[in-house]
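Service request form, structural biology core

Requester: graduate student, group of Dr. S.
Request type: structure prediction, single chain
Budget code: on file
Notes: please return the result as structure tokens.

Sequence provided:
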Amino acid sequence: MSRHPDTIRQLAAASVTRLEGIGDEEAPAWSHDPAMERATLGAMLLDPTVIDGVIAVLTAEDYADHAHADIHRAIEALHKDGRAVDFLTVSDRLREGRRLDAVGGLPYLMRLTEGLLSSAGAVAHAEAVAGCAARRGGALAAAGVIDVCARGGSVDEVRAGLARVDTALGARVDLGASIAPIGEAAMVVVEMGEDLTAMALRILRTRLFWLDAHLRAVNLGRLIIIGGRPGQGKTSLAMQIATGYAQAGEAVLWFSFEAPRDEMVLCFAAQLRGVDQSAYRESRLTPDDIQGLFQAVEEVSKWPLHITDDTRFTLAKIVAAIRRDKQRRGIKAVFIDYLTLIPRGPGEPEDLRVRVGEITRALKALSMEIGLIIVLIAQLNRGNVKDQRAPSLSDLRESGSIEQDADIVLMPWQPLMDKADKNKAGKKGSDDEEEDIHQELPPLTPAWILCPKRRGGRVFRAPCVFRRAWQRFEARDGESPVLPTLTSTTSAGPPWTPDNEPEGEPGETW
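Core staff response, request fulfilled:
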């Protein structure tokens, strides 16, 4: 076959043309089986007890004939409402939606059961219809990819098209195959119990002893949200958790949409060594600090930590990269800094709220599918600052799906920063800009790590302090056994004392 673009374009056009008018008699046989569609609907009208089995493998969108899709929706709606399903109730439902005439009226509904001796083959008929739907969806998506290639589309458009092919086929996976008796799952646990090492491989600890005391351990297959206002330390906390994983030998992947890769390396090193990060940004480091920083960089370079600062990573690219690195490097945790900076890919919705919902759902499903922890850093709105309260789940910006999809939500909170921020509100900056209020805060600022959501566990509030110079959270006693306690000549302020207890502690609801 010729590889000329015109030939490929003609092939794509021919493929799409063959699939247009999927309810017509001229539609290819492999994409449309009218007899199976009629048999499936007839079986549900003949014997409503088979409806649950049918809708477990088939949706209204799977029918090639739009009239059949309308009838399926009417049957499913009645069944979900607990109402009887028969010719009269279905026709009434269709009449309410002004679709009865479009499907052929009551006479057509009655003809659906002609020739059916029983409903025994209902599920088999439904699976045949679902198979046609999978072939249609896959062919249409593949034809779209060919057309993109033929007209010289970008690599991103090709990848997006391939992702749609994967989605079209993946949506038809037999979900019933994933349902197993609890005994089978119990045997897996028993077998793991015989090998404690295998069980340990399914959990990760942050190695922040004061946080692990509350969080215990996090199982693989979890989506964690770290949310906070600018300057509250959300990225710093994520870096400390990533450091703990990497120091334990666990492979980590970090997507940085906010800072260059070399700057991230210095931030990890400075946080590890205990170097004033503002000092190295302003070139105020002492010779000892410079030597210590390079020693820390050398140590960081040995971690199984992989960083990308490529801001072209769309959701489809992120998913592909995670799958690749899971297979190649065995990564256990992924960090994305941060959620709303992920660029919109081809074919993705323009509405940010809708797109954020798609991102969190996709990453949650991916974490469960391939067994790793995904940490998403997210912004909070100013609601808690305006109301002079601790941040809550309702403060997560852009989409309620963030809260819904997350297994764990962590929110670093420095009440004194909120107080200073409120005092300066309206004077300069915007909601998305960190105001220069650090001079008003103590070097060792009292803080909390709030956990307002924890699927399968108790929520908590972990008291801590934020050492501003080193940009890291520590235990209230001023020590941090998690990160090496290396002496720095840069002053980071006095140790924490009970006199510095934060104002505005979380309420009793915590």
